[in-house]
Amino acid sequence: MKEGQKKSIAGGNIKKQRSNSPEEEMANKSGPSNRVKEERVSFIVSEATETDKCSSEGSSLSGFILKKEEQVEDEDFTFDEPCPKKQKTSRACLGHPTFSPSSAAQTLRNELNMNWDLIELLSNLTCVERWVCENIIMLLREDNTVPFVVRYRKDMINHMDADSVRDVQLVYQELCSLAKKTQSVIQTLKKDGVLTTDLEQTLRSCRSVDELDHVYAPYKKGSKLTKARRAKALGLEVAASALMETPQTLDLRKWLKPGVEGLSSVEEVATGVEHILADMIAKDPETLTHVKTLCENCPVTIQSSVSKAALKEKVQGKGATKGHKNTAAQAKNKDIDKFQLYCDFTCNIQRIQPHQTLAINRGESLKILTVKVNIPDRVKSDFSRWCLNSRWRPKTMPREEHHLILKNAVDDSYKRLIQPFLSRSYRTKLTSAAEKESIAMFVRNLRQRLLAGPVRGSIIMGVDPGYKHGCKLAILSPTSQILHTDIFYLHASSQQREAEKLRYLMSKYSCTKVVIGNGTACRETESLFADLISRGNFHPLDVSYCITNEAGASVYSVSPEAVKEMPDLDPNLRSAVSIARRVQDPLAELVKIDPKHIGIGTYQHDVSTSALKAALDGVVQECVSFVGVDINMCSETLMRHVAGLNVGRARSIAEWREQNGPFINREQLKLVKGMGPKTYQQCAGFIRINPQTSTVSSLPCVPAKAAAKKGKGKAVISVSTSFNPLDQTCIHPESYHVAQRFLSIVGGSTDPIGSSQLRQRVENKLRSSSMEELAKTVDTSTETLQLITDGLTQPPGFDIRQNFGQADFKQGIVSMSDLQVGTVLTGRVDNTALFGAFVDIGVGRSGLIHKSNITPDKLPVNQRRRSLALGPGERVEVRVLNVDHQRGRIGLDLIRVLQ
């Protein structure tokens, strides 16, 4: 790869340099999954009209790595006028391809230098149309973020959602990584002097890392010389070729060399020929494809059992127990009990569940389980018959001894080379599919958690419950400002006195909502508040409470972000503040915490760390961008997750805001250090300028020359100093001129954005003319016009989270002792895992719905698909199956999903 290669865009005025980004370093072993994708939460928002395409790309593999933007002179922030070397793609419709330049596919193939077509293979692996894959690759190569593509380039991606685009991006990165690794292997083999033309073509035909490793394994340094290579070193490759081409002329006695190992007898010569043929058969792409097809039609199973080492340690643990000694063997014995379900487990590979695969892998890594893949004997017989009668049949009739050599070679190839390769391939595919499903579960849970509806306009008390160290309390204003913090010992002997202090404090600040963390002493604290409310202790206040997940609050309380935000506050009290803010504005608070500590999903330690981090960071960026941020109010931490921004650019925006006051309009972002045209294009549509937070009178006029002094090479930029009402909407600046034309048609203006009068005018116009006709009139696409109408008619301060459920506040508690089998309850999904969903039914503990109990036939037709993708925050109606009072666990059965 030639890093640092530069290319010119838009006439050569803007230069960009390619460099590796953290997301591009992720390349996981992967196999395509044939399962039907579950329903995903999709943000269907129309997008802008135009997208720019580069007509020429670099010729090195670095073209597949996202580029890093540099500050240079004469930056061009224009969106309205297409540049000379860019192609307009605004007229694409749903289901109709929008092609990039015809040479793009060939260019991609030349850059990878592989024997397969990247676009075609990507389309086959992802089940996405070829033209869509081509457009996604082109958009990614131009530094476009996934949120920007999904919202403003929807016509180019056939209205795919963010998860689907990320799936294509992941497979694309894996194929690029495979191509890069292939080039490295070829260079290594060439340097070692063992590269042949046939071997190079075989390597370039590999379509997965497994296939590449299978071909390259015999040539790795440090590995033993294979049987085939030893036979080739003796010169028997000519004899093997003769057996296939002209077997009637082959005489093995001509190769005899007395005293030379491997050539001293006819049997040794025949064995060497068998090894060469076996190696040829095992590396032939057509042969591997055929044997995989045979396996697809047979019941291939995966089997796990207790390892001999684990059984031995279990016996030692029993002996140690008799001697009353706490040894490592006893701990190992407990670990074996955890894997009791998989000590004698057999399942068809097509039916095994993802969580079962991850559990088996964990047991194997701990050396508790041994795992093997069982391929039916029928596959071997069918494979041998096909090889001898079709693919590896000599061109002329061989003699009996030659036919025996070929038969032995086929059997040896299958048993020694192909069968182990198939086992590794199945294990890799199962693991990859399970990891992807686990990560998808994380993504769904995190999205639901981040998009929980905020509770605005209320003074809230956050409670971090505890016994010995007391309950930490924090009272916050409606704008999340800390009003009071304290520690109450509600579970001590002085409970009555503490309750009186609590009543005084809530009356002083008129606090009516209490948020209790679900940690230690949660049930007791909830019971106490329920009892105080029922006795009218807080009268005349109408107090209610809710339980929220406090996972990650302790980690955040000692983080640098928390220290910077609350320097004078005790870490224990910071956790109470975090708990309260999780209900006031879940998105703004949870982005401060590493997603792995939020308590979502399962098996986070068994999946690829880089893949998990990339997926979770991507969904955080997606949620923050689609919700939008008020640039004059949001924290620097929240700004980092806006599409196109990073830590440095968020810091520059915060510094500009501190030095110059609030932003008046989006154009002033161009004056910020590090804000180039591409960055501005990616982030502008997700940044809001609300009139309530942009005080025009107090903002000094920032001259362009002063801004130019901040950064080297920053061009003199002329920006407006007046407020633009469109800046508070989701309409992208590149579509402002279209919005103005549409307003002139409907007879409105931008002043009353979201007003009932403007909404009425737009609706009347849409009733009299279709969206397609209006789009042609204003010279744009229907997707862009839909986005514009949404932005003009949505009320000021519109938040997409208002369609998602808020925290459930209540005033009473139901004891577990009151529950009976068959009781029907209403609850809210608290968390989902690969094996089930946990539902909060208001008794202080979550009940578990096993996936096996979520049967679509129990639900109405319109809810069947949705029930299979339950996510945190969804309200459901459930039936109690069993109650375990000792463990505090409840088994539930799903009745229906509530709207």
From TrEMBL:
GO BP, one annotated term: nucleobase-containing compound metabolic process
Domain S1 motif: 822-895
Name of the molecule in the record: S1 RNA-binding domain-containing protein 1
Region of interest: Disordered: 1-42
SMART domains: S1, YqgFc
GO MF entry, a single one: structural constituent of ribosome
InterPro entries (UniProt xref): HHH_9 (IPR041692), NA-bd_OB-fold (IPR012340), Ribos_protein_bS1-like (IPR050437), RNaseH-like_sf (IPR012337), RuvA_2-like (IPR010994), S1_domain (IPR003029), S1_Tex (IPR044146), Tex-like_central_region (IPR055179)
UniProt source species: Takifugu flavidus
